[in-house]
Amino acid sequence: MPHILVVDDDALTLALIAKALPEYEVALARDGAEALFAADREGALDLVITDYLMPEMTGDELLGRLRERRPALKALVVTGHGEILAREVPGWWRAEAHLAKPFTLAALRDAVARLIGPAGSAAP
Predict the structure, then answer these.
(1) Which pLDDT tens digit goes with each residue over 31-70?
(2) Rounded to the nearest 10 degrees, what angle do helices 32-41 and 59-69 cross at?
């Protein structure tokens, strides 16, 4: 079963994403520090779904730190600030899979399946 780490400072967003992906093994973190700790505990980690704008550590900072340990880690960035990111850090923004908040559960499931395959299959 693919393992996903979801990071967002909004508890409702965490709960909704976890509920939307019941066929995956999902770990939750409320900030970057908690995410780093959770990633160290996880043996396998196929995908990180992270908010971009969080207190103390942005999503791109978190991904940079996670990829120091797991260079091939796939990521999905969810944010309400996509237009600003596309304008201010276009290279990074284009390189990462992303969804604009608010997103539909179908869009979330489709993005996850594109990145790591459908649940029940081996990660690509």
Answers:
(1) 999 999 999 998 889 999 999 999 889 999 999 999 999 9
(2) 20
DSSP 94-113: HHSEEEESS--HHHHHHHHH
Q: Where are the beta strands (DSSP E) in the chain?
A: 3-7, 25-29, 47-51, 74-79, 97-100
Bond prior to 124 in cis (omega within 30° of 0): no
Tokens of 47: 């995908």
* Residue 122, pLDDT above cutoff 70: no
3-state secondary structure of 33: helix
> Which own/partner pairs from 24-28 qualify as long-range (CB within 8 Å, at least 24 positions apart)?
24/112, 24/119, 25/1, 27/3
Nearest by Cα to 113 from 51, 64, 49: 49
